[in-house]
């Protein structure tokens, strides 16, 4: 048996890459270039040797701060370019690399120039807006003044008589009557304030004026007829011109304070018509000059922003890379006496040669007299997990990593999920018409792959694009399972030949209600189309899909147990093989494996076999204590032998490899051996497997349930919507029926059902399959790489 096990393959291609802990001793003069070259290679994960220091206490904190300030300036330039609506494409000619100090000076000069232009432009815009408001107030307020004077002159005689016939009338006269008097108007102190205010503040403004003056004012208003730009928000706002007539210095003070509080701008308007015209001409002349000045300033500012925009993308990349380099240098220890930096990190074993070559090139390019020392260290902690993926396997690896990162060198479930995941999805989604729709969507994403990969997509579209190959495989498997189910939008077709059944009675030409008889060889591929509409259609399909779900579930759970065997064998843990893998295989297959065998026998021969076999039940009963008791006592025995009389013996044995046996005694080398804790842990693990074997097998019946639900929903939409509408001899009803059928197919069957089947397949892999062997307590390999720097890293 041992010879047979030794001859089995090691599954190296199914495991993470072998990792090596390395140490770098880098001279100061070549440190920056060495880290830069390592970032371009992207195969070394540095360890933070200064974790106890704050970011401000590290060696290169000032350089990181400078890079952060340059990033802020670059974001400022980008915002200014976007705000100006400019499109600056990078230059095609190759630009020479720029030093960080030179770039810092250029950015400071450009920022000072742009800020100064923005300040001048803002001041000119403010002046322009004030003159524009002044012009509008002159035009609108003069109408109120002219109409008031005309009214006053027409009633001059009557007002004079009324006033002088009663001397106390002036004190008690209303403000409106005082306003109508032309000459005595000024003698009595009647004044006015004209200005302009935002339309949304008008009602509150007028109410406040009324309350402050106790009604002793006359408020006139009119729309400005043109929108004015708000300098603070750069948006066009609608404003209202107002003229307030009042009397008294106290009222004037109150009104001016209210205008200031509401942001209303007040402008003086002369009562003389000649002065109004002269002032209007002056304002128009100054407006014309300011427009020319603003246009010239805008052109100059856009020219300056264009000159920055041509190199903006390259500068952003340069600053990001420099900041990443200095952040990495801050993770190294700085030895002042030896003038060198000491760093440690993880790298794949296959990359040691490439890293060594890169460091040699950095030493040569920096003209350093001392080379970089690169040597391998002995690792105590567990290495990171690194899987090399491509565009196809990356999405499946992300699905597995969402549950947990595989332990170092643990069997990778993503390798098998590339096939099993889309297949289990297709079992629940089997319809080759719907599969073709998914295929069209996947092919569209693949056809635009190069263009979409360079664009910034929304969260939903980014998720679809990232899983384009998952959708492609799900579509292909759905077409395959749909051909097996013989369903095209729930409609069967005679694709692979004629049916094997015919009507029992010759009078039932097209009806399938009186039963079918078999008259030729079985249908060559998939479900016979004659089952559709027959009395036994639902019982037949239910039996087929239910038993198929059990078979697929038992097969996948057995695959998980087999992978647990290869894990135990790889980590040289014979205890797990003898006291976990073997009893688990016996228990699972004595009950449910035998059930699967009965299903296959009945399908092949049609004969019935005994449902329960006493020998198999006895084996399943024995397997439970086999899982529970031997392993804790074996661990206790090994511990007693190791620490009683064998203190100086060799500690590493194949029975208990403490590095890789979490359930045994990982971490108990120097701790007190707690037998009760290990026994309780093993008890929980055994009970979980026994109960989980039943619940997990039942959980795979979701394949049957969702497949049936998808088929019946598709049938309902086809028969009760499309065919029902098509039965009417009315083009409008037919169009409505087609529209409802298309909407239901797209949003219910292709979106909701796809999401439902996707999540159920995810559950079957995470719990039922991976729970048999997958620990998922590792951590990802995150190398220092410029290709992995994102916008969020700033």
Automatic annotation (TrEMBL):
One GO term (biological process): vacuolar acidification
Alphabetized GO MF terms: ATPase binding; proton-transporting ATPase activity, rotational mechanism
Record field: transmembrane: 423-446, 467-485, 548-566, 586-605, 611-629, 731-752
GO cellular component term, pick one: vacuolar proton-transporting V-type ATPase, V0 domain
UniProt keyword Metal-binding, yes or no: no
Residues in coiled coil: 100-127
Origin superkingdom: Eukaryota
Pfam families xref list: V_ATPase_I (PF01496)
Family: Belongs to the V-ATPase 116 kDa subunit family.
Protein name: V-type proton ATPase subunit a
Lineage: Eukaryota, Viridiplantae, Streptophyta, Embryophyta, Tracheophyta
């Amino acid at each position: 048996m041992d010879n047979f096990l030794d001859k089995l393959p090691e599954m190296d291609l199914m495991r993470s890459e072998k990792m090596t802990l390395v140490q770098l001793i880098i001279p100061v003069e070549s440190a920056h270039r060495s880290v830069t070259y390592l970032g371009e290679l992207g195969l070394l994960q540095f360890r933070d040797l200064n974790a106890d220091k704050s970011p401000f206490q590290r060696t290169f904190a000032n350089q990181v701060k400078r890079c952060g300030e340059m990033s802020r300036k670059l974001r400022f330039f980008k915002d200014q370019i976007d705000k100006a609506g400019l499109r600056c494409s990078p230059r095609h000619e190759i630009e020479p690399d720029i030093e960080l100090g030179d770039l810092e000076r250029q950015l400071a000069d450009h920022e000072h120039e742009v800020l100064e232009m923005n300040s001048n432009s803002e001041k000119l815009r403010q002046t322009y807006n004030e003159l524009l408001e002044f012009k509008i107030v002159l035009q609108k307020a003069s109408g109120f003044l002219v109409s008031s004077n005309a009214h006053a002159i027409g009633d001059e005689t009557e007002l004079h008589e009324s006033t002088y016939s009663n001397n106390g009338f002036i004190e008690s006269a209303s403000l409106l009557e005082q306003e109508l008097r032309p000459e005595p108007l000024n003698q009595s102190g009647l004044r006015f304030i004209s200005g302009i205010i935002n339309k949304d503040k008008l009602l509150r403004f007028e109410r406040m004026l009324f309350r402050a003056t106790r009604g002793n004012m006359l408020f006139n208003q009119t729309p400005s007829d043109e929108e004015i730009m708000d300098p603070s928000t750069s948006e066009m706002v609608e404003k209202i011109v107002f003229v307030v007539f009042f009397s008294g210095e106290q009222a004037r003070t109150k009104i001016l304070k209210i205008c200031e509080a509401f942001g209303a701008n007040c402008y003086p308007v002369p009562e003389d018509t000649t002065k109004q015209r002269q002032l209007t001409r002056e304002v128009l002349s100054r407006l014309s000059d300011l427009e020319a000045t603003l246009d010239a300033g805008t052109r100059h500012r856009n020219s300056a922003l264009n000159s920055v925009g041509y190199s903006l993308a390259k500068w952003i990349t340069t600053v990001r890379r420099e900041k990443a380099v200095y952040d990495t240098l801050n993770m190294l220890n700085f030895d002042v006496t030896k003038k060198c930096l000491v760093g440690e990190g993880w790298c794949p074993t296959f990359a040691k040669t490439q890293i060594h070559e890169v460091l040699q090139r950095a030493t040569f390019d920096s003209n350093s007299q001392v080379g970089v020392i690169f040597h391998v260290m002995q690792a105590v902690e567990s290495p990171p997990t690194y899987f090399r993926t491509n565009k196809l396997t990356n999405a499946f690896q992300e699905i597995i990593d969402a549950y947990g990162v595989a332990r170092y060198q643990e069997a990778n479930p993503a390798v098998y999920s590339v096939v099993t995941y889309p297949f289990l999805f297709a079992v629940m989604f089997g319809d080759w018409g719907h599969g073709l729709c998914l295929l069209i969507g996947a092919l569209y994403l693949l056809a635009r792959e190069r263009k979409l990969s360079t664009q910034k997509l929304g969260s939903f579209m980014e998720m679809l694009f990232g899983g384009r190959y998952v959708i492609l495989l799900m579509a292909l498997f759905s077409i395959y399972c749909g051909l097996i189910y013989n369903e095209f939008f729930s409609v069967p077709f005679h694709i692979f030949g004629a049916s094997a059944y015919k009507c029992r009675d010759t009078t039932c030409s097209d009806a399938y209600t009186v039963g079918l008889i078999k008259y030729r060889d079985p249908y060559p591929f998939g479900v016979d189309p004659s089952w559709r509409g027959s009395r036994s259609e639902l019982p037949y399909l239910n039996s087929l899909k239910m038993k198929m779900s059990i078979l697929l579930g038992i097969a996948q759970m057995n695959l998980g147990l087999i992978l647990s065997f290869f894990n135990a064998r790889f980590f040289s843990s014979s205890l797990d093989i003898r006291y976990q893998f073997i009893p688990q295989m016996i228990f699972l297959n004595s009950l449910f494996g035998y059930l699967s065998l009965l299903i296959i026998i009945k399908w092949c021969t049609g004969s019935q076999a005994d449902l329960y076999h006493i020998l198999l039940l006895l084996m399943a009963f024995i397997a439970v204590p086999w899982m529970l008791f031997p392993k804790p006592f074996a661990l206790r025995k090994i511990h007693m032998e190791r620490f009683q009389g064998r203190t100086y013996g060799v500690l590493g044995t194949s029975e208990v490899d403490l590095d890789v046996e979490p359930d045994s005694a990982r971490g108990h080398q120097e701790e007190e051996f707690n037998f009760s804790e290990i026994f309780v842990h093993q008890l929980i693990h055994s009970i979980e497997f026994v109960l989980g074997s039943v619940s997990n097998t039942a959980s795979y019946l979701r394949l049957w349930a969702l497949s049936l639900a998808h088929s019946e929903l598709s049938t309902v939409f086809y028969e009760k919507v499309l065919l029902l509408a098509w039965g009417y001899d009315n083009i409008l009803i037919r169009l409505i029926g087609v529209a409802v059928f298309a909407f239901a197919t797209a949003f219910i069957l292709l979106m909701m059902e796809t999401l439902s089947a996707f999540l159920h397949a995810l559950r079957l892999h995470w719990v039922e399959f991976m729970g048999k062997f997958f620990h998922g307590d590792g951590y990802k390999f995150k190398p220092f790489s410029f290709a992995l720097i994102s916008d969020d890293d700033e």
